[in-house]
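Re: export button greyed out
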Amino acid sequence: MSDNLISKVLKNKKSSVPIWFMRQAGRHIPEYFKIRKNEKNFINFCLNEDLIIKSTTLPLKYYDLDAAIIFSDILMIPWAMDRNVKFTKNFGPSLKPMIAGETKIVRNICLISKLVPLKNSISYLREKLPKSISLIGFAGAPWTLACYMIEGRGSKDFINTRKALWSSYEWFMELIETLIVYIADKLEMQARAGADILMIFDSWSHMIPNTFFDDCAIRPTAKIVDILRSRKILVPVIGFPFKAGASIVKYSFESKVDCIALDWSVDLCWAIKYINKKVALQGNLDPASLIPSHSNHLRENVLTILETMKDRRFIFNVGHGLTPDCKIDNVKEVISIVRNYNMKV
Ligand code: 1CP
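Workaround output, generated via the alternate export path:
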């Protein structure tokens, strides 16, 4: 593993605070839309090496960042499972919904062979990017993928997914187990291709009924990490249990991830008190703070985050993805505050 700032933090070494942004690669950078015009079909975009490489490196042209996240989408696994994934402008993703207890769960696809462009892009980028920049590979967590696969689209409450869990628990767990293997395969492929960090996005973990949090979030994540380690993939894993509240504490002790990405609702004083001290932390600026052209509170908030986290192994980030309307100047300002802070301490 290269010895860049993020790897240092994650390998338990003393380091200044690194910085990158979730969802930095697309959407808020005007040139992204120019690149996107070349390929209107988003799945094809995610399968085009040239476009993956251009989008991944785009934020590095604007910002002094410590990481690049590979351009792809969490829904490439359901796509590879033939769930008829489509992205429609102004609507978002749609998939063929799975009927709980009825839809046959496919277990024999060769995921890796369907994602060769992703693998090739990572190999190319790891070769080309400076060693000081981490390359992050990622996947959606089993629960979050199951949410999209059952619901067939995004949702405010994922009621059909939760209903499926209560009505067809064994079927649901078979789906989770199947996804665990595909996710581990995809993460392994990315690490072997050159990703130095892996991230698991559980963007809908706040939709898990509390009684099932272990079954649907903690145990599946721990199993994925176990599979990776058993296959000698030793790169650090960042988990993102979005808005999971107090359950983040148990997740931090049992999910086996090396770092937890904290969402913007988490009180950092609470986090440093209760979250497993062996894991590094990442977060958690509200991405909405980067939308207004001017805010009196932005600088103050960034400094408060840095001060609060000064005794922890910490990576500065947003507490959820950058939105399309966030301002490039605000992102630059945050980076400069973090860099200046590092020079002083
Ligand atoms: O039209 C477009 O250009 C599509 C917009 C877009 C982009 C740029 C989508 C559709 N996905 C992506 C890329 C993407 N997705 C990345 C690449 C790196 C980056 O942008 O920096 C990553 C890491 C993701 C991960 C992802 N996709 C998540 C997890 C992170 C999170 O924000 O919670 C989720 C939930 C998705 C699903 C998804 N993909 C796209 C959309 C519009 C959605 C969300 C739909 C919903 O709200 O349910």
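The first helix runs from residue 5 to 10. The button fix ships in the next patch.
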